[in-house]
Fold this sequence. Notes:
Hypothetical protein af1432, mainly alpha, 9 helices, 50% helix
Amino acid sequence: MADDAAVQTRAKFHAMTEGTLEDWQAIGRASAAHRGEHVDRILAHLKLLAGDHGGFAVDRLEHSLQTATRAHRDGRDEEYVVCALIHDIGDILMPADHAELGACILKPYVSEANHWMLEKHGVFQGYYFFHHIGLDRDMREQYRGHPHFEHCAQFCHRYDQSAFDPAYESMPLEAFEPMLRRVMAAPKRSIYLRETA
């Protein structure tokens, strides 16, 4: 019945093979009420980086803020600045491969170049310290010739490796929230986007 479908608030199926259009419309309506909450969760997780110094001169939140502030003050666009803010969000959740998490979070919302930069920055950042811990500082050379090699190398050199200064005056997290919301407002690429003719 049409009236029942209009007021259906939850899917009635117990297995997706039983799903109907009305079920998926109910799911869509319920999901719409929570749009934008992913940004709130990201902001909350960034706040968890506060107080975790990991042995560095500044805590992980300050490092993220400092990296983003440096990029912003250098005139980088909002997408790049958001990448700078999020780049180390995986430090405490995925310490064995932290770069992957930030890249995964932002992949639907950023350019291919910025996604690649996020995904590979851990290897590229190694140029500045891997030789001190018994690793090959030139590990990034495996990517030499890639179209985004210099993009990533520049990010690490100009903004990431230099963002451990306790005297630097970073912008507060709240200053970046509107940028984060704008960049993550709608995906540029996703399996859930319909192709347009």
